[in-house]
Specification:
By secondary structure, this protein is mainly α. The protein is built from five helices and no strands. It has one domain. The longest helix is centred in the middle third of the chain and has 25 residues.
Length: 119
């Protein structure tokens, strides 16, 4: 049963990632928690699980000329460097605090999407 749900999650995330550039953390983390992983495990698993989605999505989007390689390289390098600090911080926080912070992030992202859709 868990494998079937993981396949459905992967398929849904792939479609949403290709369409909107979202999917990884927004879908994977809450679903992995619902499947029984703790917050820290869900975050770590999500980070690895999005690698194939990112590779395929980038390859397809680049074929349409939608990838700005220089901007992506700058953002990617900065994010990779600062991710080390994020991991240290996440490991220092209790799972309940990390879950609340993640929920707050989701609320902020949802609010931003709603505000931009109204314009």
């Amino acid at each position: 049963m868990t494998y079937a749900l993981a396949i459905v999650l992967g398929l849904a995330a792939g479609v949403l990632a290709g369409m909107f550039g979202v999917g990884g953390g927004i879908l994977f983390v809450p679903t992995l928690i619902a499947l029984g992983l703790n917050q820290h495990e869900a975050i770590g698993t999500s980070l690895l699980a999005i690698v194939p989605t990112v590779l395929v999505g980038t390859w397809r989007q680049s074929r349409y000329g939608n990838v700005r390689w220089r901007a992506a390289a700058i953002l990617g390098l900065a994010a990779a460097a600062s991710a080390q600090g994020g991991v240290v911080l996440a490991e220092a926080l209790p799972a309940s605090t990390l879950r609340r912070l993640f929920a707050g992030l989701l609320v902020l992202v949802a609010a931003q999407v709603v505000l931009r859709a109204r314009k």
